[in-house]
Write a structure and sequence with these properties.
Elements (H helix, E strand, L loop, with lengths): L7 E4 L8 H10 L4 E5 L13 H11 L2 E8 L7 H17 L3 E4 L13 H18 L3 E4 L12 H10 L6 E6 H7 L9 E6 L28 H10 L6 E3 L4 H4 L3 H20 L1
Parallel strand pairs: 1-2, 1-8, 2-3, 3-4, 4-5, 5-6, 6-7, 7-8
Helix pairs in contact: 1-2, 2-3, 3-4, 4-5
């Protein structure tokens, strides 16, 4: 467990240039024992053909647990091809020793109408439920706050989960960036399986114009209210991981030493402010 007794975790997007073994070592150097791996990093595991067993073995050697694979994209556009993709990714997640699969909704402006959002979500969750359950995995549903997204609200995600009696199979991802963009007050800490944290300190960008490229580490001038969100989630009973997921190119270009120093500073800041 990391500094300040907060259970921090690392998403591979934090340091996408690092190979899995290097990424796992970065986590352990920071006192972090849980990580998320991704299936969208070109030239890196999983896209480079690394076997699930090799990733599992490297994680075990480093002494880290794999929280999730991030992610099954456009999960709420359920088709035969999507079902096949879900099975393949779930097999990989189980083989790699991951506990969960992150589920990301379509984010292209389609599927947003009132009469289609919930039915599409329910259809997808119904299809995913046996795939995940058979492999002992949790599905982590991640609403995105972008205005073009087909699933912006956690309240709607919970309604879909409950419609398929899926509370044991599906949990929410609370992403502090997307929660801020969506403007939703409800938190659902007891339905949350993972928290993604990142910070935006650019004072010139409006909230509707915030994009992944603005997401750095949580710093002193963070505009997303990370500390308030985490405190509210903790007060509501969420005790799980806080997983760093920055997308800013300035972060991703750093070498292992630089990102380790920056992460250590952000972890210390968060722990201090949570304790105050």
């Amino acid at each position: 467990m990391a500094s300040g007794a907060e259970p921090f975790a690392l998403n591979h997007m934090t340091a996408p240039k690092l190979r899995p073994a290097e990424f796992f070592a970065l986590a352990r150097n920071l006192g972090i024992i849980e990580v998320e791996i991704r299936n969208d990093l070109a030239g890196n595991a999983i896209l480079d053909g690394s076997s699930a067993a090799s990733v599992r073995d490297e994680a075990q050697r480093a002494g880290v647990g794999i929280l999730s694979i991030n992610a099954l994209q456009r999960f709420n556009e359920w088709t035969a091809a999507r079902a096949s993709e879900a099975e393949e990714l779930a097999d990989y997640a189980a083989g790699a020793g991951a506990r969960a699969l992150v589920l990301v909704p379509r984010n292209d402006g389609d599927g947003r109408d009132d009469g289609e959002r919930l039915p599409n979500l329910i259809e997808a969750l119904q299809g995913l439920k046996p795939i995940l359950s058979d492999r002992g995995l949790i599905g982590l549903v991640e609403p995105l706050g972008f205005e073009v997204c087909s699933l912006r609200l956690k309240s709607e995600a919970v309604a879909g989960i409950d419609a398929v009696d899926g509370a044991q199979t599906f949990k929410l991802v609370h992403d502090t960036f997307h929660h801020h963009l969506a403007g939703e007050a409800a938190l659902f800490p007891n339905r949350t399986g993972l928290v993604h944290i990142s910070g935006v300190d650019d004072a010139s960008v409006s909230v509707p114009d915030m994009r992944d490229s603005h997401r750095g580490l949580v710093g002193a001038n963070d505009r997303l209210g990370n500390i308030a969100q985490i405190k509210a989630l903790r007060a509501g009973g969420y005790a799980g991981a806080l997983s760093f997921e920055p997308f800013a190119e300035s972060i991703q270009k750093m070498d292992a030493r630089q990102i380790q120093d920056r992460l250590a500073a952000s972890m210390a800041l968060i722990a201090t402010r949570l304790a105050s």
